[in-house]
Amino acid sequence: SSRDEPFTEYELNARTNRFLELFGGMGSSIPERFSYKSQNTDPISPGQITISHLLAAGAHLGNNTEIFKKSMQPFIRGERAGLYIIDLEKTLTHLRRAAGVVRDVAQAGGLIVFVNSDELTRPHVAKAASLSRSPVISDRWIPGTLTNPRVFEGMQNVVKLSMSDNVLSTLSSTEHPAKPDVVIFFNTINNKTALRECASMNVPTIGIVDTDCEPGLVSYPIPANDDSVRAIQLIAGALGKAAQEGVEQRLS
Amino acid sequence: MLRHSLGRIAVHRYARRQIHQLPTLKRIDEYRNSGIPGLYSPTGFGAAWTEYQTYLLDRLSELTAGTDFEDKSPLDIVLKTSRTPEHSVIFNYASLAFNNHFYISALNPAKEVRGIPPTVEERIVRSFQTVEALKELMFQRALGMFGNGFVWLVELPEKVDVGRPQLAVVNTYNAGTVFDEARRQQLDLTGTISSEQAEAAMDLVKRPPGALGRADVLPILAVNMWQYAFLQDYGPAKKRDYLENWWNSIDWDVVGQRLFPGPDLIAH
Questions:
Q1: Contacts of B215 in chain A (CB under 8 A)
Q2: What is the CATH number of the domain that holds A103?
Q3: What is the pTM of this model?
């Protein structure tokens, strides 16, 4: 604003924001505290996840004992407060196994697809997928994605990449886009169509299975709580990190 | 509390785990050993800063533990609780913690104080005609206080003739804060109040907080007139000496940083 005009709203806001940035922390010094937001920018890698992390994220809390799938019995530790408690040692081993699969697929140049099932977990899954520039299905798995593939109107720049991520050629409208080499789910109950498609097209799947889920539906189950956003953030971050490591190894 | 045991108490406090820790001053070790030469002796500095600030932060940590305010900075808490009576205790401690730190962090040992930079002097002169006039005004306001409080030099969101915000002197009694008009507590309640003043105060409370919860009046400089700040070294009768020493200990570079540099210097 010029000399004769009063400060504009923008200028006043900028003035206050500057002051708060410089002096807003005055009065005390507060030590850094853990924040879940930091998980998205730099997730914990699967090799460093401990049972304490899983416990803090609530990955051990299964569902109600009334809606239990008997094939989940090997993964249950016990019962408490009407819930089945998942054995976190099994969670950890299965998570590491799945992470190994993801890492090897990424290193071999495979296509990894993340499938999100819930709005709350959308940013976390998207961020985990972006670490290895993997595609993520955020909204809804359109039935026939694998079994009835088409090039949709909104699809742009579908390209073939070499092993060092150089563009080889673009796909024509008649060519079939690549089949994923592994698909990662975070909720098996809401993705029955997708799981069946992957099974019929021989696409390996990784998925979080809760105590009311059928572990046989996925190739590499990870027994954990699928209702906790923090648990999904943790596991998605771990798998995303594993994919990133695989990609880095491939490109180096 | 015996003053000679201050060192022991200070060490014990630092060893405790509290959310709010004593903020570091740039020369805290020096100050702890020799005070702020020209203003505070070591015990005076301990009483004005170390002991009292630790007390405020301990109480603030205790009161906010387990609540939403747990890990918020004192200024955050002040801006959020200034209008809610049920949080007035938390507000008091947070406000005083901020005010005290704001006051102390603009001080320098008197020998090392450099003159007022031209930009700062220009701004002061534009609002108060001379730096001496500002000094006298702040002194008068401080000496006229019967009771505890702070005297502030604040920057208003209005412009004076050449496009920079205007400065003013404001009193805040007890733990009042400059950021919210309704909690500035700038009415001297130790004297009689006219009905106009009372009405004006009531009007302030009724007015909603600033647009977007923004604080428009920003502090630049403060002097602590709470008794704990000067009683140890000066006693109750020598307020003027305390004020003179304070004026000679102001780090004007710090004050300059607090002033708004102007819209043309903001990166878009």
A1: 16, 19-20
A2: 3.40.50.10490
A3: 0.65
CA distances from B264 to A30, A84, B52, B268 (A): 33, 62, 40, 9
pLDDT at A91 over 50: yes
- Rg of chain B in Å (alpha carbons): 19
Whether A18 and B157 lie within 8 Å, measured CB to CB: no
Instruction: Check: CB of residue A141 under 8 Å from CB of residue A194.
Output: yes
Interface test with B, best of A28, A30, A36 (most B CBs within 10 A): A28
pLDDT in tens, A36-87: 777 777 899 999 999 999 999 999 999 999 999 999 999 999 999 999 999 9
Which residues, given as ranges, of chain B have pLDDT below 50? 1-15, 211-212, 266-268
Taking the Cβ of residue B257 and every Cβ of chain A, the question of whether any pair is shorter than 8 Å is answered with: yes
> A28 and B258: CB-CB below 8 Å?
no
Contact A15 B218 (CB under 8 A): yes
In a 10 Å sphere around its CB, with 0-12 CB exposed, 13-18 middle and 19+ buried, how is residue B161 labelled?
A: exposed
Contact call for residues B113 and B251 (beta carbons, < 8 A):
yes
Highest mean pLDDT among A11-15, A200-204, B203-207: A200-204
CB-nearest to B75 from A3, A18, A24 is A24
Residue A13 within any structural domain of the chain: yes
Task: Name the residue of chain B whose CA is nearest to A1's CA.
Answer: B263
| Whether A27 and B73 lie within 8 Å, measured CB to CB | yes
- The answer to whether position B42 is within a domain reads no
CA distance B54 to A221: 52
Q: Which residue in B184, B20, B168, B205 sits closest to B95, CA to CA?
A: B184
Q: For the domain that residue B242 is a member of, what is the CATH number?
A: 3.55.40.20
